[in-house]
Structures are given as C-alpha cells and as structure tokens.
Amino acid sequence: MCSTDCVLLLSSVKDFLGQMFCTLGEIIGSTGSRLERTLSGIPGKKCGSIIFTAEELSNCRDIATMQLCANKLDKKDFFGKSDPFLVFYRSNEDGTFTICHKTEVIKNNLNPVWQPFTIPVRALCNGDYDRTVKVDVYDWDRDGSHDFIGEFTTSYRELSRGQSQFNVYEVLNHKKKGKKKKYVNSGTVTLLSFKVDSECTFVDFIRGGTQLNFTVAIDFTASNGNPSQPTSLHYMSPYQMNAYAMALKAVGEIIQDYDSDKLFPAYGFGAKLPPDGKISHAFPLNSNAENPNCVAIEGVLEAYFQSLRTVQLYGPTNFAPVISQVARCAAEVTDGSQYFVLLMITDGVISDMDQTKEAVVNAAGLPMSIIIVGVGPAEFDAMEELDGDEVRVSSRGRSAERDIVQFVPFRDYMDRSGNSVLSMARLAKDVLAEIPEQLLSFMKSRGLEPRPPLPAASDPPSMSTSTPAPKQSKAHA
C-alpha cells in the first residue's frame, strides 16, 4: 500500500508558481486515479490547480508461464542416472546473479520434462527484456551437495519467441570442456512452451472502485494501567501521543486514502461501561451503538480519548467478539466492491485464543484482513500463532483458507532517538505491506476481476459530487 508523501513545488526559471502536498495513496485512491488540487504558496494570489493521474507500469504485472525439457544430460550418479533440476538466475546491474526460480527435481532421468511454472516478469528480468537470464542444471543429491551438470544463458526476449530453433540450448560445463578435447556439451534444454498473462493488481481493484472499509478495535483492559498515570500505555500526555494513538494514526492515515466516505467504526474491548458496569468486548468508542462510525482518523482519536475518561479498564482480553462482528459485515458483500481491514491494538496475551482462532478461520473465507499491533513490554509469543506466515491458523481440524492476520509488536519499530514520526512510518510500512496481496488472494479465490476504472472526477475532492458506488453498512454493533 502506498504511503509515500508527495511534495510538489512549481517554478519557472525565476518565478515560484505554487505548491501542494499529498500522498501517493491519495492519488491512487481518488476516483479514476485522478486527483485535482489547488496550488498555494503565494499570499493573496490564486495559483491555479494541478491534476495528477496514476498509471501502473505494465511490465510490473506480467506473469510468464513456461515449460522446459532436457535431452541427453550427463549421468552423475554412480548407481543410477541423474536427478536433474533447473535453477534460474536474474542478472543484476553489478554483474552478479540472483536466484529467481528453481524447478522440481525429476528423479533418475537424463531426458526430463519439467512441469510448467509461473514467474513474474519483474522477478525474471526486472522489466529489461534483454537482460541476461542464466540457467544452471544440477543433479540433486540428498545431502545438499548437488552436482553441477552445466549452464546456459538466455533472455526474456529470446524466451518470448516460444518453442523454436532459437530456444534449444546447449548445456555447457566449462571445467569439463577445458579438460576434454572432444567435449561437445552436457546435453540440451528445450523450451516447450511460453506465454505471458497480465495479472490483476491491487491498483486495478482500487481504480475499479473497490473500497477498503477500515475498523478499529482498542484494548481497554486493566493491564494497560491507570490512564491518568504516566506509566499507563493509555496515558494522555499533553506533549506526545501514547503508543495506542501512534499505532492508530500511523495505519489509519494511510488506509483512509482508500476509503471514500472516511467513516470508520471504532470499538473498545475489555472495559466496564457506565452506568451499570457491564463488561463489553465490542463497545463503540463514540457511545453510539446504532452508528459507531467516526469521521476520519482524527474522529477516531477523539472518541478514543473520550472513552478513556468514561469507561473503567477491566478485562479479560477477548478478540473473538470484534473479529466476528466485522466478519458478519464482510459476509454481506463478497462481490469484490469492498474489502474490510480490522486494526486491533492490544497490550497483552489473548484470553480467548481458541475462540479467536475459530473466528480467524471463519473470516479467512471473507473479504477481510486483520492487523494486530502489540504495544508495551509484554511477551506476545502466543500472537505469532495467529500470524499464519509459517503455519496456517487452524481450529477444530479446519485450516484457514488464507493468511489474513499480520501481527507486529510496536516496540520493534520505535526509533531510538524518540522520533515518533519515524516510528509510525516504520510501523505503517510493515503492517500494511501484506494487505494488497491478501486482497488479491481473496479476489483470485473467488474468481473476481476488477471492474472497469471509474471515470475520473472533474472537481477537487473537497468539492466533488462524483463518488464510487454506495457501500454496505459498516461494522455496527
């Protein structure tokens, strides 16, 4: 997701013409990826306006699918034939090579036919169609000391010709060639097929009108400490934001660029509510059960600080109620027009882990992602179980359909010099990095294609009457 700040200064050879500030996310998230803003900077003078349009480079999305076979490869195993596999390398500008793909191993075969495989063109050649692609041929060994059979070089442009006389490559072992006068080659590799498809991207869906619905849930358990004390994680200092506010602002200010109405449901969990002291794990921060939406991130922050003054921090730390609540809203709109992102900020270990895992497994089949930010010094080892990067979350023998949870401890991103802006930028970069791929994984699993790009709005955002299609109701209690 885009968080880059754009600063534009316009001038002729001598004269300053004006300036404006925006984020890249604002440009991409605008209707039709077209943003018009008024220039300013000269007191008492109208500086005119400027129009930005965003376009994604086509070769960033191309996906190549190819299949290769080999013939008469060298025999490397004493008791059998070779177990060959291919390793593809992208050449770098400094002359080095980077591995970009390995094929499967074909056991005991000197004439192997490998399965077709798919690779992004940017991974193969970084968009430079004439850049050298090196391919090594190895004989697989169980102990990892694979035997080198030989190598050949090609390029994306050559491969794109498809099956032809130009795509039959001699596999050469230069050491062997230097020792044997009659050496010809160590076999040949032939390209059997090659095709290129253009894969849909996150930007395609945003340009087609897909909206990100952002929901916030904040931990109000007693382990955070008394908000009136400086030692509390909820302490409302007049001089700086606490960790909860920083995490909320860091993530929210970026994601709000992809949400047209800027209305965000915001909840707390683990507190006793007035007047009867009832414990709630999904109470609206604005105290309005019928409409928990807050206007923009500043509205969420205002409601958060107000709740700290009115509720009693208590416990336990239950995640499942809020996850299930957002999931119910996500289940109402699975046509690709909306995608839900839940940000949960907490200071401790989850009390309802079994129920939370079940809620995550259920939500994994919906247009939904969950970001969990841990604040404070607690150990968050149990949280890693929810972040399915290594092992997919499971519950009652059922595994999550997708990896939808991203967990990070905020302390890992705190700048040592105390620069809160830098800390927030580092946090936002990492926690939002997985959202585009998670959105795409849902769309792909449901066979959903981006809608045609919306027509660009002709007026500045503050005056525009052109909006995407109405969204479904947000995460109401």
UniProtKB/TrEMBL annotation:
Name recorded for this polypeptide: C2 domain-containing protein
Repeat as UniProt keyword: yes
GO molecular function: metal ion binding
Top-level taxon of origin: Eukaryota
Entry keyword set: Calcium, Metal-binding, Repeat
Residue ranges of every copy of the C2 domain listed in the record: 46-169
Region annotation (Disordered) ranges: 444-477
Organism: Pagothenia borchgrevinki
Family: Belongs to the copine family.
Keyword Metal-binding among UniProt keywords: yes
